[in-house]
Amino acid sequence: MVNYALSGEQARAVSRLLDLDPILLDQVSFADGVLRVPEALRDSVGSILGMPDYESAGLRPTADDVRAEAGRRMQVVAGARDATHLQSIIANATREEVRLLRRGQMNWSHAEQARASELERLDAKIEHIRAVSNVLEQNPPADYADDKHWS
Question: Is the pTM of this model over 0.90?
């Protein structure tokens, strides 16, 4: 993936473009002022924007960029609409886990056992994303959003 740091005006223009072209929407992501496009689109997107990508411009992603990517990934695994919804899902899961623990595992129904397993899997995925983010934040690579760093 190639990353472009966008100004507010450029970000608005890209948002409008993405709203109009669903094919592009499937190939790129845009969050927190950073446009991420596949390597194959580097030249065409750079020409449209009239600017170099992070790497070509000699810019380095920041820890904030990595944190934003981690947040986006956590939203995806949790099925959250946005960051606020993610926090609500995590808080509700925590409350549900506490209630299950108070009942005692020996007293769980089959449905409760299945739900506890589901909550454990979600927690493991979120913790993995957070752990990767913590490592990447120390020295963010230019391709920090690439799946190879997060798997």
Answer: no
Q: How far is it, in rounded angstroms, from Cα 96 to Cα 121?
A: 14
Contact by Cβ (8 Å): 140, 62:
yes
- Burial (CB < 10 A; 0-12, 13-18, 19+), residue 114, is exposed
DSSP string, 3-60: EEE--HHHHHHHHHHHHH-HHHHHH-EEETTEEEE-GGGHHHHHHHHTS--HHHHT--
Q: Per-residue pLDDT for 50 more than 80?
A: no
Q: What pLDDT is stored for residue 147 in this prediction?
A: 87
Sole residue written with tokens 């913790």: 127
**69-96 confidence digits (pLDDT tens):** 999 999 999 999 999 999 999 999 999 9
